[in-house]
Amino acid sequence: MARNPTASTSTPTPTSTSTSTSTSTSTSSSSSPHKYSVILPTYQERRNLPVIVYLLAKTFKQHDLAWEIIIVDDASPDGTLELAQQLQELYGEQHIILRPRTGKLGLGSAYVHGLKSCSGDFVPKFLPQFIAKQKIRDADVVTGTRYISGGGVYGWDLKRKVISRGANLLAKIVLWPGVSDVTGSFRLYKRPVLERLINETVSRGYVFQMEIIVRAKATGCIVDEVPITFVDRVFGESKLGGSEIVQYAQGIWMLFRTV
C-alpha cells in the first residue's frame, strides 16, 4: 500500500496486507523517499512468523528502505503473540507493531485493523520486484501471480493445484478481472487506493483478496502483475477448507451481480 510522498500517512500489511489512515511522516535516514508497511495477519503461526519477519527485514535493509511490519494476531492459542512480542524486542518497536485482536475475526477485517496503524507510503503484500514494477506506470496496485511465465508454486499437491487453477479460471471467465491470479495475497498498493478499496469491499473472509482486485480494475485503477513463486508454509497446514471454497463460489456470484 502506498501514500503520497508529499503527504503524511501511515500503513501496515500479510496487505503482507496492511492499511492505515494515520498522519505521521517518516524520519528514517533511508535513501528512499517512501516508507513501506507490511501487514501480517496471523493465526497459529508461531513457527512461521520468525522466518517471514527475518526475510522481510533482511530485504528492507539490503535495499535501504524505511519499513514497518504490522502483526495482527487473532488470539492464537499457540503463543504467536508472545513470539511476536519477542520479535518486537529484537527488531524494535519502530519496525514491529503489534495489533492483536480478541478472537478469530477473519482475514479481511485483519487487513482493515492493520491498516489503521500503518505509517508507510506503500503497503506491499517480492518487494524489490514490486517496487520496480510500480514505478514503470505509477501503478495503483501491483499483484503477484503464480500463473504467468516466471511464476509458480512449491509444496502443493496435485489436488490443491487443480483447485487453485480452477478457482482462478472460473473468476476470469465470470468476472474478467484483467489479472491472471485473483486469489494471491502478495500485493503492493498505493495507500490512498487501498484505503478506498477497503471502504468499498464487503467481503471479510477469503473472498476479500478477489474482491479487492476486481473492484480495483472496475474503478479504473492501474493494476500490474509480477511473477512470484509461492512456497507453502514451512510449518502447519493450510487453513483452506470446504467452507472457504463455498464462500469463494458465493463471492464470485456476488461480484458478478454487483460490480
From TrEMBL:
Look up the EC number in the record and give it.
2.4.1.83
List, alphabetically, the Gene3D superfamilies matched.
Spore Coat Polysaccharide Biosynthesis Protein SpsA, Chain A (3.90.550.10)
Q: What class of enzyme is it?
A: transferase
Biological process according to GO: alcohol metabolic process; dolichol-linked oligosaccharide biosynthetic process; GPI anchor biosynthetic process; isoprenoid metabolic process; protein O-linked glycosylation via mannose
Q: Describe the subunit structure.
A: Component of the dolichol-phosphate mannose (DPM) synthase complex.
Main location per UniProt? Answer: endoplasmic reticulum
Which is a Gene Ontology cellular component entry for this protein?
A: endoplasmic reticulum membrane
* Localization per record: Endoplasmic reticulum
Q: Kindly state which keywords UniProt assigns to this record, in alphabetical order.
A: Endoplasmic reticulum, Glycosyltransferase, Magnesium, Manganese, Metal-binding, Transferase
**Protein family membership:** Belongs to the glycosyltransferase 2 family.
Say what the protein does. Answer: Transfers mannose from GDP-mannose to dolichol monophosphate to form dolichol phosphate mannose (Dol-P-Man) which is the mannosyl donor in pathways leading to N-glycosylation, glycosyl phosphatidylinositol membrane anchoring, and O-mannosylation of proteins.
Q: In which pathway does it act?
A: Protein modification; protein glycosylation
Q: Which domain of life is it from?
A: Eukaryota
Q: Which PANTHER family match?
A: DOLICHOL-PHOSPHATE MANNOSYLTRANSFERASE SUBUNIT 1
What is the required cofactor set for this protein?
Mn(2+); Ca(2+); Mg(2+)
Q: Where is the Glycosyltransferase 2-like domain?
A: 37-197
Region Disordered: what ranges?
Answer: 1-35
Q: Pfam families given for it?
A: Glycos_transf_2
One GO term in the molecular function aspect is: dolichyl-phosphate beta-D-mannosyltransferase activity
Keyword Mitochondrion applies: no
Record carries keyword Metal-binding: yes
Organism annotation = Microbotryum saponariae
Q: Name the chemical reaction catalysed here.
A: a di-trans,poly-cis-dolichyl phosphate + GDP-alpha-D-mannose = a di-trans,poly-cis-dolichyl beta-D-mannosyl phosphate + GDP
Q: What is this protein called?
A: Dolichol-phosphate mannosyltransferase subunit 1
Record InterPro entries: DPM1-like (IPR039528), Glyco_trans_2-like (IPR001173), Nucleotide-diphossugar_trans (IPR029044)
Q: Where is the composition biased (Low complexity)?
A: 8-33
